[in-house]
Amino acid sequence: MFDTSLTVIGRLVNAPVLRRVGDAQVANFRLASNSRRRTPDGTWEQGNSLFLNVSCWGNLGIGVAASLAKGDAVVVTGFVYTSEYDDRDGNRRSSLEMRAHAVGPDLAYYVVKVGRVVDNEQPDAEVYQDERLSDAAAVDLLDEPEPLPV
């Protein structure tokens, strides 16, 4: 079978939803990637948008659900495929979907402290919450870089 691997930089349209499918866990979210360019007068002009439904299986799904929220900037790598379905009116439609094999925060926007998963146990989010930098401290560290087109 031929799989098309792709890396997409974008933002979560919704919070990841973690659910159990048989013996496995999967987190699903929608990803938006928007292009834009700077015009000669210095303003930003919006370009095309790409929307993907992303599924993250196993430990990746657990980590995504515990770490990310709606609006977060991420880098996602995975296999892309087209899913076809019939809508309510009976029209044949298709959507672009990705089965992710790696998801991470876009470090152009964040300073992140990494917490390791031990023995397939989910890390305690409250432990890491206390060690997070405040938004103001993170911005000071980043020295307010110009945002990349997302």
From TrEMBL:
Pfam families: SSB
Single Gene Ontology BP annotation: DNA replication
InterPro entries from the UniProt entry: NA-bd_OB-fold, Primosome_PriB/ssb, ssDNA-bd
Alphabetical UniProt keywords: DNA-binding
GO MF term set: single-stranded DNA binding
Protein name per UniProt: Single-stranded DNA-binding protein
Annotated organism of origin: Mycolicibacterium chitae
Record gene name: ssb_1
